[in-house]
Amino acid sequence: MFSRISFKYAGIYRALSIITVFLLSFSFGANNLGLIWALLSFSYKGMLLVIAGSILGVLLIGWRTLYRLSSGLFTIGSLTSFTVQLFSFIAMEIGTLFSVPMPVTITTSFGLVGVGAAHRFRIINLRYFNELILGFIVSIIIGLALSYILIRVI
Questions:
Q1: What is the C-alpha R_g of the chain?
Q2: How many whole angstroms separate alpha carbon 115 and alpha carbon 41?
Q3: Do residues 88 and 111 make contact, with C-beta atoms less than 8 angstroms apart?
Q4: Collapsing DSSP states into helix, strand and coil, what is residue 125?
Q5: pLDDT band at 46 (very low <50, low <70, confident <90, very high)
């Protein structure tokens, strides 16, 4: 009896996870892609560039990032996945309301770290966690350098 109830709730959490993925994607579009399109003066070419970049990003690296996050830190279940996505969506929506750009990878990654810490911190793969922090620091430095170069060229 207990296992049938567990499977029922697991299915509900999986369905809710799918819904929160769409909500998180919408919020990401409003938060980050809307900002980029605004910086491109809301032009038609700018919109096509944002769409092409988004599709390429998802196809080339998006799936790997989610896989690496969900298997690198610790194994997550349906409830954990739903919780992380829901609160990442809420954080991004609040950021959007206050015009604060928020990378979806950072909100989701630290949501996973928070859930892992709430369970037990020792279940988090600390080697991967250190790589994650180093990757965020390096990406900020590279982003600043490329932005500086881009602004100097334009």
A1: 18
A2: 39
A3: yes
A4: coil
A5: confident
